[in-house]
Amino acid sequence: MSGAVSFNWRGAWAIYNQELSRAWRTFFQTILSPVLTTSLYFIVFGAAIGGRINEVDGISYAAFIVPGLLILTLLSETTTNASFGIYMPRFTGSIYELLSAPVGVAETLIGFVGAAATKSLIISAIIMVTARFFVDYSLAHPILAVGFIMLVAGAFALFGFILGIWADGFERLQIIPLLVLTPLTFLGGTFYSIDMLPEPWRSIALVNPIVYLVNGLRWCFYGKSDVSIGVSLGLTTLFLAVCVGIVAWIFRTGWKLRS
């Protein structure tokens, strides 16, 4: 990639716009499908389980699962969009055109990662609106909630970018989102409070990193969570920093990009 000193805004915008336009070309898969899936979660878990569990920590069960469902969709869509976005140029060979273009690491990340994060933020907003049709939830800390969602979206967009470079095939591209992230999210307090678990399962649950994402957003919504918001913010920021470091190493060494 070019080592130009000045930032190539036009190059960053071109990558960003191309990636974002792909979402509108596949509207059902990218936008509508997550909304329909989330609606089914509300119908099944909110109605079926909510009829047996009236409240959790003084919050109605249907409202309690809103932050968890938001994180579930956010992680899945952000990681998938970012990984697919960088994998396709590698698969088709057009990555070499990008590598020879006058754009640097910053422009490339803003283009690919920024587009993936933007798509996820749009989906998150739509899901929050959709949730209003099923439950009357509240936002105790709306500004912090938006900031936390953006932090998670940015971190997992970078994570997805790394996966897209690591993957050697479509099957490998889906391994982490389907076999790791989704199970961890279901076991991370999405549909229950980990305080409801007996020992040693509660202590084991605290090893799951998704617990801190779900509870961080749940605190932003209701001011209540199973873990400290400071710990949630700290671990999410640390994960973001680690991903930035890995991406910097990838571009410095050319790992999987030039081979």
How would you characterize this protein structure?
- The chain has helices at 9-25, 27-49, 61-64, 66-92, 95-100, 105-131, 142-166, 170-186, 201-205, 210-222, 229-253, and strands at 55-56, 59-60.
- The longest helix is centred in the N-terminal third of the chain and has 27 residues, at 66-92.
- The chain has one domain.
- The protein is 73% helix and 2% strand.
- By secondary structure, it is mostly helical.
- Helix 7 (142-166) packs antiparallel against helix 10 (210-222) and helix 7 (142-166) packs parallel to helix 11 (229-253).
- It contains eleven helices and two strands.
- The protein has a two-stranded antiparallel ribbon with strand order 1-2.
Largest sheet: 2 strands, antiparallel
Give, in order, the helices and strands.
HHEEHHHHHHHHH
Portion in beta strands: under 5%
**Approximate helicity band:** over 70%
Q: What global shape is seen?
A: elongated
End-to-end CA span: 14 Å
How large is the count of helical segments?
11
* Mean pLDDT metric: 87
* Major β-sheet strand ordering: 1-2
* Annotation, overall tally of beta strands: 2
What is the alpha-carbon Rg in Å?
Answer: 19 Å
Give the number of domains: 1
State the low-pLDDT regions, or none. none
Class based on secondary structure composition and strand pairing:
mainly alpha
Task: Give a brief description.
This protein is mostly helical and 259 residues long. It has helices at 9-25, 27-49, 61-64, 66-92, 95-100, 105-131, 142-166, 170-186, 201-205, 210-222, 229-253, and strands spanning 55-56, 59-60.
